[in-house]
Design goal:
This protein is of the alpha+beta class. 18% of the residues lie in helices and 33% in strands. The radius of gyration is 21 Å and the shape is globular.
Length: 376
């Protein structure tokens, strides 16, 4: 798929660094047009940066339930759940979505950590009937996003029932004569369907979905820039961008959807339980809204820009920006995620952010989400 896009007019950007970098489409055309298609119709986004780990065997659910932070002993066919995989020190080695199928579990996660995750999980196998493999080379992923995503999936596979796929559900469909696993994953705040398919059929499925461009809603190919704007608006933090392997679950801003505090033991549980009981952490991921000054457009911070406490120009930084965008659904406001010292994470706290070569005022929001379709 990358060779196909490289031969087109698409703008390719590297995901990752060095020899491990993967080319991802940044945009096919003006980003504002691509973004509008998410909010008004349906877009198709190719995902070579997302890997897949497969777990097979009769003991797969019992084994995984002893390893990951989420309750997965009942991860039956058609059920998907988000979870962390922690190390012994309780830090996040992987952020994953587990897809339960009749004969296996498929994990969607950052491609750069797929091999290491499969290897580290397999190291804990003893006598269990389970086999763990990084199948990223043979399994490709792409996604439909937008208000029309469910209707497009139903049209593509000829099954009206798929239009009723709820968050946390997955199903098997047939597109272009190929069996595909479809999972509901609302990355942008509007309905989203992530598709997992054999790599050798990815181009044919991509073309089949684009054939629906004349339908209502039409399907528009888009790149990461538009999807990234929408996912920040929707408050969806991203592993290896907004938090990573040096973070504890309490710091990520997404612990509620990844950790089941009622389940039994798992690797790193003692650290998680202790921090939850004491309600203490060194830092945390927050949403920041940049304050406009005297009618001037708000400056847009960049990843890595530093965050300072308000009122002390000589103070040391208390954190840094991890993601940022101008949010169309929030009246074009300049917004950002930032990993900052815990003392400054209370909603309403005013901070100073370096942005576009100057200092700008910012306010901590009450959640990571800057917008939702429901208006909540």
């Amino acid at each position: 798929m990358q060779a196909r896009f490289a031969a087109s007019d698409a703008l390719l950007i590297p995901y990752g660094t060095g020899e491990n970098a993967v080319d991802v489409v940044g945009a096919f055309e003006e980003v504002g047009i691509e973004y509008a298609a998410i909010r008004k119709g349906c877009v198709l986004f190719d995902m070579p940066h997302t890997g897949t780990v497969e777990v097979r065997g009769s003991d797969r659910l019992a084994f995984l339930n002893n390893m990951v932070t989420q309750q997965v002993s009942d991860l039956n066919e058609g059920v998907s759940r988000r979870s962390f995989w922690l190390n012994r020190k309780g830090r996040v080695d992987a952020d994953m979505r587990l897809c339960g199928r009749a004969d296996r579990v498929l994990m969607a996660l950052d491609r750069h950590i797929a091999a290491s995750t499969a290897e580290s999980l397999a190291a804990y196998l003893f006598s269990e009937d389970a086999e763990i493999s990084d199948v990223s080379a043979t399994h490709h992923r792409m996604a439909l996003h937008g208000v029309g995503a469910l209707s497009v999936l139903a049209s593509a596979c000829g099954s009206p029932n798929t239009a009723e796929l709820d968050p946390g559900q997955n199903t098997k469909v047939t597109i272009a004569g190929v069996e595909v696993i479809a999972e509901r994953e609302d990355l942008t705040g509007d309905p989203g369907i992530e598709l997992c398919m054999p790599t050798e059929h990815a181009a044919a499925i991509y073309d089949e979905l684009l054939k629906l461009r004349a339908d209502a809603p039409s399907v528009k190919p888009v790149g990461w820039f538009a999807v990234n704007t929408a996912r920040i608006e929707a408050g969806q933090a991203l592993y290896n961008t907004d938090f990573a392997g040096d973070n504890l679950p309490m710091e990520t801003g997404v612990i509620a959807s990844r950790v089941d505090f009622k389940k039994g033991c798992y690797l790193g549980q003692e650290v998680v339980a202790r921090m939850d009981a004491r309600k203490v952490r060194k830092r945390g991921l927050v949403g920041l809204r940049i304050i406009t000054e005297d009618g001037e457009p708000a400056a847009l911070p960049s990843q890595g820009d530093r965050v300072f406490p308000a009122g002390d120009s000589a103070a040391d930084p208390v954190g840094s920006v991890t993601s940022s965008t101008l949010a169309p659904m929030a009246s074009g406001a300049s917004v950002a995620f930032a990993m900052i010292r815990d003392q400054e994470t209370k909603p309403g706290t005013e901070l100073i952010v370096t942005a576009e070569g100057k200092r700008a005022r910012a306010v901590v929001q009450d959640s990571l989400a800057f917008w939702s379709r429901s208006g909540a």
